[in-house]
Amino acid sequence: xxxxxxxxxxxxxxxLLAMIKCPEEFKKAQMEVDQVxxxxxxxxxxxxxxxxxxxxxxxxxxxxxxxxxxxNVTSQTLxxxxxxxxxxxxxxxxxxxxxxxxxxxxxxFLANTWAIHHDESEYDQxxxxxxxxxxxxxx
Length: 139
Fold this sequence. Notes:
Elements: H1 5-21, H2 23-37, H3 52-61, H4 64-69, E1 90-91, E2 96-98, E3 101-103, E4 108-109, H5 113-117
Antiparallel strand pairs: 1-4, 2-3
């Protein structure tokens, strides 16, 4: 499989799942696209600044829009349904210390993406698809 195609496909499938599971959110997204683009064309990267709810949907499902629309941002962190819920392995390139722990160069880390993005102290109703939580987001 081509690099990145499976994660992109998984993100898009999560978005479709959200739109099917949450028809009211789908209606809001469709209304916004219709207001900006009409019914004769699809949105383009030039439209993203005028599609705040679509951007919020992508923030909730994943930061896929970042790499597509804002080339200076490369984050692809997925919140609602992460493609890699156990995280992606990272290895330290130098010795480090974190909260009193000594971490030698070569240590392998896995960030628990699911736990991070479903932390109830950070996200109200973390298991729900709620794009409005990202409206007026500074990111």
